[in-house]
Amino acid sequence: MKAISLKIFISVCLLIVLHVAPDGPQSGRFTDTVRALVDFGTFALPKDVPHHVDVVQIKGQLYSVIAPGLPIILAPLYWVYRNLASIIGLPMNDVFWGGFNGISLIFYIIWNPELTNLD
Length: 119
What we know:
Layout: H1 2-18, H2 31-40, E1 44-45, E2 55-58, E3 61-64, H3 69-88, H4 94-111
Antiparallel strand pairs: 1-3, 2-3
Helix pairs in contact: 1-3, 1-4, 2-3, 3-4
């Protein structure tokens, strides 16, 4: 039973993170943090990129107010996707984020195969 509860918990966390696209209702709350972590190796948000409103400034650096756990879980998937998109020349626009959300759905279904059981 514990394994199922942990799977459900992680799945819900991944859905929260993976289905947040720039300019969406969360306005980059998670994606800004994941991009900063993967692209720059820090949780500090880059100053030249527009940010959502949920940020805090500490010693001149902007940080998202979200907990770091979910961006850490998402970072490897984003890193792989970003590098593959770069190889094929896909710019970071709505198509990029739509593809990322599609891959996250596939990952979610693989993580929870019981969701595809229609019996």
